[in-house]
């Protein structure tokens, strides 16, 4: 072929070969991408009308693309924002569970204390009248300390209850012996006989066991709800790493750049991206599940032997029964106290003329157990705890299943039934790599997200430690022990504020011991014996009235 013909034909053939490519470029317009991009709220000035060369792309495949550098940056930030929102939405259930149930339990408990205090005040005003009102601060202080303990105050329940009964004994001892004058030192000596003489019967021992273990369980349970709420709120606010952001952009918006805005990521592809981005959250799961298990155990205690409602509802009647025991045994108690602490000085004539029994209301009748529930069945606490338990069970494994929950969202992936027509990170085809296991160390070979497995997230580790500490407190509360006081109590048992009793049969804390009372001068006793004899007939008259009152009380049962 002559050279001049070749010179004409070769350029023409090159032109003809280039024509299909030009037609193909025209066919791959960016109109669909422009619509999807604009629907996200972005300006269309950044986006080309037709695909352009993709050498400028830093994340998406550097092939013909509908994305400019500005678009890739904006879509990368959009993918980060959407991921953060997805985690918050997906963890919404567990967060609202702890927020709402903490609020309900706290309101219930505070209302229970308020009602118990009001009930006691109303009952004692009717029953004891001015005698109670003149000494009401003893009972007000009891409820103040119980509230302070519940709200996290440094209160040792056993010591506080012992102090209450000692103070009550001091006040009552003066009321049943109005013919005597008692100094502060003498009353302090009286209080030393609280454990030995058991003036209130077995009520203080039983009430201490019930109150301590119920309050320990209730306070620890509400603290657990607080910790769960705080951990869930903190962990749900993720801060994706640069490697995670790159993987999110590649998964969610590189289809836009490839002109495939309607093609969603493959399900398994999504799982690997989420497992890489949420690797540290998954490591929280083990400690979280142990925490939930401990919460459920304490909840069972609250439904059963540690039911705070069955303790607080009849507390007014129980204390009143203790006062009645003191009235019935007052002569023996007074005699033993006088023997140990010495004979007190006679009171002035005006004060001794007033006797305590005249102030008691004979209409009061002792408590009948059938009149109000003393078990958890049917109580408000029972229903509340049952509801909380159901929600807690649903929150187990929430952090390790987070990737699966997110990738099931039809807004995110193409689903498991469309594995051939989904985005695999490069094109619309099946995703072939295997799915990674959960946790940070298992992401060493994650094909989608660069994860530094040698640097655990310190923030997540702090939440793990908070859960571990709370779980330990819950385990102690389950056994009736208050971990806050285990090492600070002066008692040899070292059990702190808790009794540790597993059932209603507990060993007696108060045994009769022959503790020597403060020494009293024998001459002083001899001098005061004549004064005591002069008051003896009056004291006998007073106690005759007491017996009449008690008889009337029995009649009104």
Automatic annotation (TrEMBL):
Judging by the UniProt lineage, the source's domain of life is: Eukaryota
User: Looking at the record, which segments are called Disordered?
Assistant: 348-378, 480-501
Q: What is its main location?
A: membrane
One Pfam family here: Glypican
Q: Which UniProt keywords apply?
A: Cell membrane, Glycoprotein, GPI-anchor, Heparan sulfate, Lipoprotein, Membrane, Proteoglycan, Signal
Regarding the membrane, this protein is recorded as: Lipid-anchor; GPI-anchor
Q: Where is the composition biased (Low complexity)?
A: 348-357
Record's protein name: Glypican-6 isoform X2
């Amino acid at each position: 072929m002559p050279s001049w013909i070749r010179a004409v034909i070769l350029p023409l053939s090159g032109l003809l070969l280039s024509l299909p490519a030009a037609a193909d470029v025209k066919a791959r317009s960016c109109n669909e991408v422009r619509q999807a991009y604009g629907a996200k709220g972005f300006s269309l000035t950044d986006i080309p009308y037709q695909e352009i060369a993709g050498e400028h792309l830093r994340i998406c495949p550097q092939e013909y693309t509908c994305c400019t550098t500005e678009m890739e940056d904006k879509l990368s930030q959009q993918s980060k924002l959407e991921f953060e929102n997805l985690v918050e939405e997906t963890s919404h259930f567990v967060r609202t569970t702890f927020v709402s149930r903490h609020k309900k339990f706290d309101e219930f408990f505070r209302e229970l204390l308020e009602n118990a205090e009001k009930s006691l005040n109303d009952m004692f005003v009717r029953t004891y009248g001015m005698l109670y009102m003149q000494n009401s601060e003893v009972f007000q202080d009891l409820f103040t300390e119980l509230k302070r303990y519940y709200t996290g105050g440094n209160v040792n329940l056993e010591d506080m209850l012992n102090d209450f009964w000692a103070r009550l004994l001091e006040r009552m001892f003066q009321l049943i012996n109005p013919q005597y004058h008692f100094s502060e030192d003498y009353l302090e000596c009286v209080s030393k006989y609280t454990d030995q003489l058991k003036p209130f019967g077995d009520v203080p021992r039983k009430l201490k066991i019930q109150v301590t273990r119920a309050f320990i369980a209730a306070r620890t349970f509400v603290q657990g709800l607080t910790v769960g709420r705080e951990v869930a709120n903190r962990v749900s606010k993720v801060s994706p790493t640069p490697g995670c952001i790159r993987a999110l952009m590649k998964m969610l918006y590189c289809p836009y750049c490839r002109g495939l805005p309607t093609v969603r990521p493959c399900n398994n592809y999504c799982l690997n991206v989420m497992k890489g981005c949420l690797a540290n959250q998954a490591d929280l799961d083990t400690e979280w599940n142990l925490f939930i298990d401990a919460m459920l155990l304490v909840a069972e205690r609250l439904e059963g032997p540690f039911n705070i409602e069955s303790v607080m509802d009849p507390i007014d009647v129980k204390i009143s029964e203790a006062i009645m025991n003191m009235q019935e045994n007052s002569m023996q108690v007074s005699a033993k106290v006088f023997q140990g602490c010495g004979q007190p000085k006679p009171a002035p004539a005006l004060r001794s003329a007033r006797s305590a029994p005249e102030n008691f209301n004979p209409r009061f009748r002792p408590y009948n157990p059938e009149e109000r529930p003393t078990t958890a069945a049917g109580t408000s606490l029972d229903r509340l705890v049952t509801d909380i338990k159901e929600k807690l069970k649903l929150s187990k494994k929430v952090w390790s299943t987070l990737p699966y929950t997110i990738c099931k969202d039809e807004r995110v992936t193409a689903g498991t039934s469309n594995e051939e027509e989904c985005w695999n990170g490069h094109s619309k085809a099946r995703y072939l790599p295997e799915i990674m296991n959960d946790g940070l160390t298992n992401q060493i070979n994650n094909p989608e997200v660069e994860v530094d497995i040698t640097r655990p997230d310190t923030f997540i580790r702090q939440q793990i430690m908070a859960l571990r500490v709370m779980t330990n407190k819950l385990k102690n509360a389950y056994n009736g022990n208050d971990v806050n006081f285990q090492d600070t109590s002066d008692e040899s048992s070292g059990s702190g504020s808790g009794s540790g009793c597993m059932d209603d049969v507990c060993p007696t804390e108060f045994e009769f011991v022959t503790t020597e009372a403060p020494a009293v001068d024998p001459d002083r006793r001899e001098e005061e014996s004549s004064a005591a004899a002069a008051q003896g007939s009056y004291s006998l008259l007073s106690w005759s009235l007491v017996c009449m009152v008690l008889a009337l009380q029995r009649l009104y049962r």
